[in-house]
Amino acid sequence: MGLIAYIKSLFILQLLVGFVFVVSGLIINFIQLCTCVLWPIDRQLYRKINTRLSYSLWSQLVMLLEWWSGTECTIFTDQATVDKFGKEHVIIILNHNYEIDFLCGWTMCERYGVLGASKVLAKYELLKVPLIGWTWYFLEIVFCKRKWEEDRDTVFKGLTQLKDYPEFMWFLLYCEGTRFTPKKHEISMEVAESKGLPKLKYHLLPRTKGFTTTLSCLKGTVSAVYDVTLNFRDKKVPTLLGIVNGKKYMADMNIKRYPVEEIPEDEKECATWLHKLYQQKDALQEHYEKEGSFPGPTIKPPRRLPDLLHHRCDATHLACAKPPAFSKFFCCFDLPILYNLILTHYWLVY
Fold first, then answer.
1. Where are the transmembrane segments (predicted)?
2. Residue 67 backbone zone (phi > 0: left; psi -120 to 50: alpha; other: beta)
């Protein structure tokens, strides 16, 4: 184990990373609360401010993936598709197989300048999660209880409200509804069989209601749907703990763009389109399993410095404060200096 790898595995340094995220997150949430007075006066100004505040928090998590663990993301798509990244409102359909798939999605958002305005159709339970749920609330994230009778009005109102969003947004949908597990897959395929739908090997049966509703409500705003299939080389299964410990992963993302004009407007036909899309995604995963790579040209978008520099500034200001609760740890050695040396190392080397 190298010196840098050993230092990153130290619990006290990982504690500092968590401390910076939690304290800065609480400060950001307080500022977001203060911006609520702007909502009835200037809604677009409120949105622009909160987009940048959320970036201040999400960029710290992206920093962990890109700079702390050194995880690399390779895109498999054509240049024409890449040229549109960050320049249009889109819906993202992503497979849900890993703990860190949302981080990989945020990495692409960061590299194309839409991280602060990224959206998701989230579980209602996440609203109660400190920092993440609270930040999402101020970002007008749509929360649902997965009971359509209860969610109908809330979902329609929340999605329709986003039609005039001033920043280009990427709206993430996990159409499978939950993370893939063998047990869930078995149950899902029983449902597919009962409905006469083709079985999937690497995905759960997609839930079409969320997709068709989102596409319908954002009609005229969203210009395309990006189908994203994520996988990791050497059949590795990445974890959040692995990222915190500085473990490096190699992520591959196949992205295909579908203009909304090519997607049926009728709800039943749109649902059928989504089922066919997941059959294609399944075939793509089968190809990856056999070949160890997706087909097509590859692009490696460069990492940007803002997320690293932002976290470095937060670490310096908050760690130098040395709150009493952490005084026993901080008195051993100058953690801010040590932590910033590691961040500088990644800045210079990568």
1. 12-41
2. alpha
User: Contact at 8 Å (CB) between 258 and 224?
Assistant: yes
What are the strands, taking DSSP E only, across the chain? 72-76, 90-94, 119-123, 142-144, 170-173, 224-232, 250-259, 298-299
Q: pTM for the full model?
A: 0.88
Tell me the two tokens of residue 109: 């958002």
pLDDT in tens, 155-183: 999 999 999 999 999 999 999 988 999 99
Structure tokens at 169: 């947004």
Q: Residue 204 carries which DSSP code?
A: P
41-314: CATH class: alpha beta
* Strand order through the sheet with 72-76: 142-144, 119-123, 170-173, 90-94, 224-232, 250-259, 72-76, 298-299
pLDDT tens digit string along 22-63? 988 999 999 999 999 999 999 999 999 999 999 989 988 998
Q: What are the residue boundaries of the structural domains of the chain, listed by start? A: 41-314
Dist CA 113 CA 62 (whole Å) = 13
